[in-house]
Specification:
The protein is built from 16 helices and 9 strands. The chain is 42% helix and 9% strand.
Length: 417
């Protein structure tokens, strides 16, 4: 079937609007997904790990909600009892990351204890206590999305036990677009059925790696399955497009974060050099990043995006210490020997207190001869690297290799919280 030019152009416009890397296959996949959703059909995005299923599902949900808002009618098939709650009026979707431990209450909702001011208003005496008033019903993503007509993303839906997903059979078998669906919530004390908004839809994602469980055929038949081909990130144009869009999105996120800090009048706990004020890269800088990272073999889009963000974080935070993009890359990939000791020692001195003055702070290595205990120095540098990239670290090694000592030393002598 020939792909209609107008739909392709519309798809490209949406990809560019939301800063999403794409190819011809993704344009077609999104087109098919939107056609299904507009007809009230639930979709299942299927692909390998790292193929971007989560981000794609969010992208599709945003487009669907945006287009649906143009002609939505809240009075049709909706329960307006919660319309006074505008706390999430700007949400485009609801999302649940499914695991093997996911239960029906995680999807539907459950009773939860009151806390804070709600609890303080209750009587103190045992005799006057009605214990049922200490708990209130909290809607899960399905009920919340169903009432408000929001798409609900069930991420990694195949990880969930089949009996949990089967709880949604009445929603999966009927079409909210054309049927007046009432969903029975047996878990709720009132037992009143919930009217489902006509805009409600379910978007599932399923990874098809060898060691992952698959949905049964009966459950898959309740979705429109759309297979997502892997993007060849080794293609030069796609590789550059992903890096360019990652930098653009990071720039927007940094700008928003800094605006929020100013609005809240928060006092910054970090030194001036540690705070990233903006991402002011020229095209020449972006080309350098592309040339540096093309030496690495990335398996997935996620790996490339993470590497790009980490490289930028390192460079923006330590460029004033004489570090170039190449030095930042070598620090990121543990090529410490390719960075001069002068730069390394300056970096350590700015992060760890009294580095030059206090011998105990040098953690068994010296500026003059860093080879005396290379393992200790490398552990400290890895901790610094993770600090600069906002990345959690897991120190692993044989007993007695100094893992605990390195962590205590770094935490005790780090100059800022």
């Amino acid at each position: 079937m020939k792909f209609e030019c107008k739909y392709k152009n519309n798809g490209i416009e949406n990809f560019e609007k939301y800063n999403f890397a794409y190819n011809e296959n993704l344009i077609k996949a999104v087109f098919l997904a939107m056609m299904a959703l507009k007809e009230g059909l639930n979709i299942l995005l299927i692909g390998k790990k790292g193929s971007g299923l989560t981000k794609l599902s969010k992208f599709i949900a945003k487009i669907y909600k945006e287009e649906n808002n143009n002609d939505s009618d809240n009075s049709d098939g909706s329960d307006n009892s919660d319309n006074s709650d505008n706390s999430d009026i700007f949400d485009n979707y609801k999302r649940l990351l499914c695991t093997s431990e996911t239960k029906g209450e995680d999807i539907i909702g459950c009773y939860q204890p009151l806390y804070g001011e709600q609890k303080d208003n209750l009587p103190d005496s045992i005799e006057s206590r009605d214990l049922s008033k200490y708990f209130e019903w909290q809607d899960g993503p399905i009920l919340s999305g169903g009432k408000k007509g929001l798409p609900v993303i069930l991420d990694n839906i195949n990880f969930t036990k089949s009996q949990v997903i089967e709880r949604l059979n009445s929603l999966l078998e009927e079409n909210p677009r054309y049927d007046n669906i009432e969903f029975n919530v047996d878990e709720k004390e009132s037992g009143e059925p919930i009217k489902i908004n006509k805009s409600f839809i379910i978007i599932g994602t399923m990874r098809i790696d060898e060691d992952n469980r698959h949905l049964s055929n009966a459950l898959m038949n309740r979705f429109i399955s759309i297979y997502i081909d892997e993007i060849n990130i080794n293609d030069e144009l796609i590789f550059k497009d992903i890096i360019s869009k990652t930098i653009k999105e990071l720039k927007n996120n940094i700008s928003i974060m800094n605006d929020n800090i100013l609005d809240d009048n928060n006092e910054l706990e970090y030194p001036e050099w540690y705070n990233i004020k903006d991402i002011d890269f020229t095209q020449e800088d972006i080309n350098k990043i592309e040339n540096i990272l093309k030496n690495e073999k990335f398996k997935t889009i996620k790996d490339l995006v993470k590497a790009t963000i980490k490289l930028i974080f390192i460079y923006k935070r330590i460029k004033d210490f004489g570090f170039s993009l190449e030095d930042s890359y070598n620090l990121l990939y543990n090529n410490f020997e390719k960075i001069s000791n002068e730069k390394m020692n300056k970096l350590i001195k700015n992060i760890m207190s009294d580095y030059e003055m206090n011998e105990s702070n040098k953690f068994f290595f010296t500026q003059e001869n860093n080879d005396e205990n290379n393992d200790a120095r490398n552990m400290i540098l890895n901790l610094i690297k993770c600090d600069l990239t906002n990345t959690p670290i897991f120190l692993q090694g044989i007993p007695g290799s100094g893992k605990s000592c390195a962590a205590r030393h770094y935490g005790a002598h780090r100059k800022f919280n």
